[in-house]
């Protein structure tokens, strides 16, 4: 289906013009994970400057699940990391700047720039990381709890995240993992009982054969066609719902966490958009590193966004910063299908000079 085409991005070799190159880098950016697969981004490409401005599309900052925009900004950080990983894979030198505050499209929140701006480039790449980006997907299945993650992998990811100025706690002891799974259950079952939260989720929860480019098909939660459409209907209801069915999400998240040999909690010194961008970059780096080692990850944002659950987590972990990203990692029993994507044309635009659309 067309909404999965972005995953077939080719790896370029040889002569490529600057505009094509920047569009190509955006093609890697859009494969990044995002909250509810909202893809809350816009990319403004300025070929004459070798710039890609990443913007936060305010229409997709969801008022119920993402009140402060934290999840969306973390998602932009993930997209930036993919652009950076692609640039590195093609041996391009680059830099990027975070803009102050949380500006919305058309203003950029991050500006990425090629250091060496030319009309064309001769590309050759290390294909490994590019192939990892193409293969990555969130895996919400249960993991093999009897198979620990080798300490060398944990150490590498820990070093990577700490080098970005963030605090990382890797939880591998069962009592703490159980406690976290209960905090998560509390957070998820609380929000899913709110009509407005459910209705918002229903817009981004898709039936399996949906042609939408944005949103999460039931199959990415391991659901068959019938179950996916009945859940979508239930989520969209305004009146009373079946609480047992609704608690299903919370239960499967809890089981997912309990099955995981490790839970990663990334905390930032400050709860600001700048930190959220860095957390997003760190998470995506970790997710790609996991993928390249045959490991899977799943994010649980409820525990970050529901204040009480977040405080309980913080008290339990006794960390310094505010937990900003929680994900679990392990060896999955099954692979998961990709989620759809909007195309580069739908989220990107070429700008001749500052402000002038082509
Ligand atoms: C900031 C952020 C928060 C997320 N929160 C959740 C979550 O709470 N529960 C969940 O099941 N998936 C969560 N995800 C995973 C996304 O739903 C997933 O990335 C998206 O559907 C696209 O799928 P893909 O990563 O397989 O390409 C989150 C991802 C990001 C980047």
Query: Main β-sheet, in a few words?
Result: 5 strands, mixed
- Small molecules (ligands, ions, cofactors) in the structure: flavin mononucleotide
Biggest sheet strand order reads: 4-5-3-2-13
Count of structural domains: 2
The SS-based structural class is: alpha+beta
Q: Average pLDDT, to the nearest integer?
A: 96
Tell me the span between the first and last alpha carbons.
Answer: 29 Å
Figure out the total of helices: 12
Pattern of helices and strands = EHEEHEEEHHEHHEEHHEHEHHEHE
Per CATH, the superfamily of the largest domain is NADH Oxidase
At the first level of CATH, what is the class of the largest domain?
Alpha Beta
Report the helical percentage.
40-55%
Please give a handful of descriptors for the protein shown.
358 residues, alpha+beta, NADH Oxidase, 5-stranded mixed beta sheet, 4-stranded antiparallel beta sheet, binds flavin mononucleotide
Give the helices and strands, then pairings.
Blueprint: E1 14-17, H1 18-29, E2 41-46, E3 51-56, H2 70-89, E4 94-98, E5 108-114, E6 120-123, H3 127-135, H4 151-162, E7 167-171, H5 174-192, H6 195-204, E8 205-206, E9 216-217, H7 225-236, H8 243-258, E10 262-268, H9 273-292, E11 296-299, H10 302-305, H11 307-317, E12 322-330, H12 344-347, E13 348-350
Helix pairs in contact: 1-2, 2-3, 2-9, 4-9, 5-8, 5-11, 6-7
Flavin mononucleotide is lined by residues 33-37, 71, 74-75, 78, 137-138, 140, 216, 299-302, 339.
């Amino acid at each position: 289906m067309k909404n999965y085409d972005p995953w077939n991005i080719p790896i370029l070799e040889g002569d490529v013009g600057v505009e094509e190159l920047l569009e190509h880098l955006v093609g890697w950016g859009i494969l990044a994970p995002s909250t509810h697969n909202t893809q809350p981004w816009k990319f403004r490409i300025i070929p004459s400057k070798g710039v890609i401005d990443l913007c936060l599309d305010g229409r997709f900052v969801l008022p119920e699940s993402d009140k402060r925009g934290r999840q969306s900004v973390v998602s932009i950080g993930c997209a930036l990391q993919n652009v950076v990983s692609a640039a590195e894979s093609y041996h391009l030198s680059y830099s990027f700047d975070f803009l102050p505050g949380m500006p919305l499209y058309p203003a950029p929140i991050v500006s990425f720039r090629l250091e060496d701006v030319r009309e064309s480039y001769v590309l050759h790449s290390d294909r490994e990381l590019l192939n990892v980006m193409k293969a990555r997907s969130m895996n919400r299945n249960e993991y093999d709890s009897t198979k620990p993650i080798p300490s060398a992998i944990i150490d590498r990811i820990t070093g990577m995240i700490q080098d970005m100025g963030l605090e990382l706690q890797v939880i591998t002891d069962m009592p703490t993992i159980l406690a976290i799974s209960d905090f998560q259950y509390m957070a998820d079952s609380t929000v899913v009982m709110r009509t407005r939260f459910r209705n918002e989720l229903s817009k981004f929860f898709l039936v399996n054969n949906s042609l939408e480019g944005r949103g999460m098909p039931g199959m990415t939660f391991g659901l068959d066609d019938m179950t996916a459409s009945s859940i979508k209907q239930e989520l969209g209801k305004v009146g009373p719902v079946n609480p047992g069915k609704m608690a299903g999400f919370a239960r499967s998240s809890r089981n997912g966490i309990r099955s995981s040999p490790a839970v990663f909690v990334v905390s930032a010194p400050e709860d600001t958009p700048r930190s959220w961008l860095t957390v997003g970059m760190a998470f995506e780096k970790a997710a790609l590193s996991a993928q390249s080692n045959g490991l899977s990850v799943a994010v649980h944002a409820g525990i970050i966004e529901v204040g009480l659950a977040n405080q309980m987590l913080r008290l339990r972990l006794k960390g310094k910063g505010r937990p900003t990203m929680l994900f679990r990692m392990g060896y999955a029993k099954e692979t998961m299908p990709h989620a759809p994507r909007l195309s580069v044309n739908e989220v990107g635009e070429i700008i001749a000079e500052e402000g002038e659309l082509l």
